[in-house]
Amino acid sequence: MTSSPSSPRSWFKQVLLPLLADLRLAIVLLLAIALFSICGTVIEQGQSLEFYQANYPQDPALFGFLTWNVLLALGLDHVYGTWWFLSILILFGTSLTACTFTRQLPALKAARSWKFYRQPRQFEKLALSTTLPLGTLPQVRTGLQKQRYKLFEEENSLYARKGIMGRIGPILVHASMILILLGSIWGSLTGFMAQEMIPSGSTAKVANIVRSGPWSSPQIPKNWAIHVNRFWIDYTPEGQIDQFYSDLSILDDQSTEVDRQTIHVNKPLKHKGVALYQADWSIAAVQVRLNNSPVLQLPMTPLQANKGGRIWGTWVPTKPDLSSGITLLAPDLQGTVVLYDGDGKLVSTVRAGMSAEVNGVTLRVVDLVGSTGLQIKSDPGIPWIYSGFGCLMVGVIMSYVSHSQIWVLVEQDQIYIGGRTNRAQLTFERDLIELIDQVSPGEASPALAFETVEKLST
């Protein structure tokens, strides 16, 4: 029983499926993905409301329309997790799947099957064809085998092909892109990203979640914490930051160390599917001693510096009634601290381990305590994405392999031979002429070349 033209099944096959498999639709979707990915790269993702209000004010609006409220309403602050971006990915993956099943797989099936030519007139449709003496069929067969063709023979007809992987390549490319899309979608739904600033010597749990998918709860660590054993920075001889390091320990619920690694930029710690990246740093506190007092650890606050620099400061009381004190400023963790009095005048510059007399008190700077800025991420779709890119490279290489076909027919005391290929036409022509030269030197090659030029020109 056949379905009527108006039935859902007929509508799917005749209308929806051709539309999804249309190359123009795939190109439009791919351009849309690229455009919104650029937006997600240019526009800072996952920042606070205050950040967007300060950088995307209503007056003047960026490009005349892009303000913080428009940006938040469209979801451009978290492009890759919006419903419309995921919908575009799903639609693009559906288009690739439809194209694979309606075009690529049938093309592969046709390439794997063999069809013999039974009539001499069939060779007229080929761009490359000629005739050979009757007794040269064994040499033709041997020559094709030397050129690594797979032969199929039946009665007076022969079919040869090679490069079938050239037909498999596009299918693998489509499958790879679908795998990448699935990995991206799965990562958006189940992954999370957090940021933590942890002082050296402190322990913290993952709590400051910046971005998370609707199904990310199982991925967020709940039964282990991060302990920063030590944070330090290596500087160049010119005083510039060379690299910063964090010696981290992973502690379970009983505060037992289950893993310990030293991380730096581009070398994360990975534990139970969660990666801890070295992303930032800060000065958490300064340790000082007033006269013979115990070591006091005072928190330091980031201050706004000129020319976009970074500086941290704190205030140290020098009298028990807090009526006077000294301001300490530190630009980095190299140990240099600048002291200012209550009037803003420079009092002294000291390094860690040194002391200075201020307001009748001996102030010794014991050490600066740094904080490590960690970016904590989990993306379960990453293995899918990496696998997809690996298969994509293999598929692209396979797609460059030429799929070549040659037909031979013994008819009327002569041999008809011809062929075609889907790419590298000149290479295929050269190989076929070389084969004909080996079989029948000086006879068939000129005819083949003449017929080839004539057919290609017409």
Characterize the largest beta sheet: strand count, sense, and whether it forms a barrel: 7 strands, antiparallel
Average pLDDT reading:
86
Number of helices, where a helix is a run of at least 4 consecutive DSSP H or I residues? 10
Cα radius of gyration in angstroms: 36 Å
**Coarse structural class:** alpha+beta
Report the end-to-end length measured between terminal Cα atoms.
47 Å
Question: What is the total tally of β strands?
Answer: 21
The total number of structural domains is 4
As a percent range, the share of strand residues is 25-35%
> pLDDT under 50 segments (min length 5)?
449-458
Task: List the defining traits of the structure above.
458 residues, alpha+beta, TATA-Binding Protein, 7-stranded antiparallel sheet, 5-stranded antiparallel sheet, 21 strands, 35% helix, disordered C terminus
List strands and helices in order, with pairings.
Elements: H1 8-20, H2 23-42, H3 49-55, H4 68-74, H5 83-112, E1 128-133, H6 137-146, E2 150-154, E3 157-162, H7 165-190, E4 192-199, E5 203-204, E6 209-212, E7 225-235, E8 241-251, E9 257-264, E10 269-271, E11 274-290, E12 296-299, E13 301-304, E14 310-317, E15 325-330, E16 336-340, E17 346-351, E18 355-358, E19 361-378, H8 382-399, E20 404-411, E21 414-421, H9 425-439, H10 444-457
Helix pairs in contact: 1-5, 2-5, 5-7, 6-9, 7-8, 9-10
